[in-house]
Amino acid sequence: MNNLNKIILTILVAFIAIAYTLYKDVLVLSGYYRGPAQKSNGGKCRYLEGLKSNLCEDIKIHHASGLAYLACGDEQSRKTLPWPPPIDAYNNSFPLRGIFYVYNIEKDKLTPLILKNFPDEEDFSLHGFGIYESPTESDNLYFFIINHKRTGSVIELFKHKLNTFELNHLKTFKHDLIYSPNSVAPVSKDEFYITNDLYYIQSHWKVQLEIWTRRRWSNVVFHSSKTNTTELVVDGLIFANGITVNWDYSHVFIGTSGTGELFIYERKPDNKLKLLDTINIEHSVDNVNVDPVTGEIYLAVIHDILEYMNGLADKFQSIKPSFGVIKISNNTKEDKFYGIKYAKEKIFEDDGTLFYALSVAAGDSSRKVMLWGSPFAEGVVSVANQKTIRVVLD
Ligand SMILES: *[C@@H]1O[C@H](CO)[C@@H](O)[C@H](O)[C@H]1NC(C)=O
Ligand SMILES: *[C@@H]1O[C@H](CO)[C@@H](O)[C@H](O)[C@H]1NC(C)=O
Ligand SMILES: *[C@@H]1O[C@H](CO)[C@@H](O)[C@H](O)[C@H]1NC(C)=O
Carries keyword Kinase (predicted)? Predict the structure, then answer.
């Protein structure tokens, strides 16, 4: 154990003694009460062809066309540098170039997308992204993509014509309030929400301090280029991670890694968010996806946050963090009359053998396929006929 770990442990122990609520949260998120993750038999899972040595943090499915979009990075830069850059300082002399893929679920075909109107020498370091479907342009999708440039993080807007293999750059959004974006949820061609996962970005020590003392410094920011406003809409979170919207953009969903919660907000006409429900997931939540057909919410979750932090420190050489996939649906059982509005079901769990450090689970209920990605584990896993997969817990 190195000195850093010793100090972190000391801080952690001191904290546990002082604050019971924090202690409880860490215990819950580390899986103390549920025990280690079970190994899955992986029966219906397989890797997508042609994605070796790519690591894909975020995946979104365009359900009408059955096309999935994958935001990936190359293995070399992910394993040699701390990633994503805002989590830690990085000092790199060559441009980072992530790559987008489109995956046709029915044809089982994966194709890289070519960037147009975007300089070759520009950084393109990917993390979360969101897709906006304009109701008046059935052929075009608008991609809002987090780009962690060495000069600071920005949101890039690209236009993509369905069934082509290009992303056309339109615009870059940069603002002081967008400093550590993790995930982005567009609600029009000009408006989006982002989560800032941490307050500190460029100092290893400050980042560690913020994480281990569990500062409530994470927030959600709304930007509109219609009115040229960028404003804080939710504050006081601990490591807000995935953000997404439902099919009609009326509700916003935010998962937190720091407290293991899923927040459901209603969007007000002025784009402020009103908290409707808090669902205690009891696992650190990474990306959040909503199936627009069923309204079901899929969460990629970390099984044990301490194992995950150790994995990060180890650069995942020997520690392969376990994970789960949790589905949230409307509660149809009798206890809904007692105010339990949502049903929470863990539909998959693995101890890190099949895949590890899962960051995203994108489900397509009509094609019965789910895709998984991770910024640290090679490749993307396709889980066919997800409805039949059940790993029972709790
Ligand atoms: C970044 O790299 C350069 C060149 O290798 C080096 O001179 C500089 O000290 C490094 N900065 C930090 C903060 O590590
Ligand atoms: C938009 O607002 C920012 C400050 O938030 C300002 O710097 C910028 O000049 C404004 N742009 C326009 C086009 O008004
Ligand atoms: C619950 O039902 C409502 C009304 O049908 C639907 O809009 C919503 O998406 C559903 N939510 C979930 C989590 O399934």
Answer: no
d(Cα 362, Cα 386) in Å, to the nearest integer? 11
Predicted confidence band at 387 (pLDDT cuts at 50, 70, 90)? low
Phi, psi of 84 (to 5 degrees): -75, 155
241 appears as a binding residue in the annotation: yes
Active site residue 175: no
Q: Quote the ligand 1 centre to 84 CA distance (angstroms).
A: 18
| Residue 235 annotated as lining a ligand binding site | no
What's the pLDDT at 392?
36
Pocket test for ligand 2, best of 228, 229, 232 (most atoms within 8 A of CB): 228
Least confident of 18-27, 57-66, 107-116: 18-27
Q: In this structure, are residues 321 and 304 in contact, taking their beta carbons and an 8 Å threshold?
A: yes
Catalytic residue among 127, 148, 160, 283: 127
pTM (two decimals):
0.90
Say how far apart CA 37 and CA 40 lie, in whole Å.
Answer: 9
The answer to which of 137-141, 148-152, 282-286, 371-375 has the lowest mean pLDDT is 148-152
Q: Is 287 annotated as a binding residue?
A: yes
CA 292 to ligand 3 centroid distance, Å: 10
Pocket of ligand 3 contains residue 378 by CB under 6 Å: no
Is 394 known to sit in a ligand binding site?
A: no
Q: Is the CB of 250 under 6 A from ligand 3?
A: no
The answer on pLDDT for 141 being more than 90 is yes
Closest atom of ligand 3 to 247 CA is 9
- Top mean pLDDT of 88-92, 93-97, 347-351 is at 347-351
Pairing of strands 240-245, 273-280: unpaired
Measured from CB, residues less than 6 Å from any atom of ligand 2 are 228, 230
Q: What is the pLDDT of residues 281-308, one digit of tens each?
A: 999 999 999 998 899 999 999 999 999 9
Cα separation, 147 vs 228, whole angstroms:
20
CATH of domain 3-388: 2.120.10.30
Range list of H helices, the chain: 3-18, 20-29, 75-80, 204-212, 305-313
The DSSP string of 72-84 is EEEHHHHHHS-SS
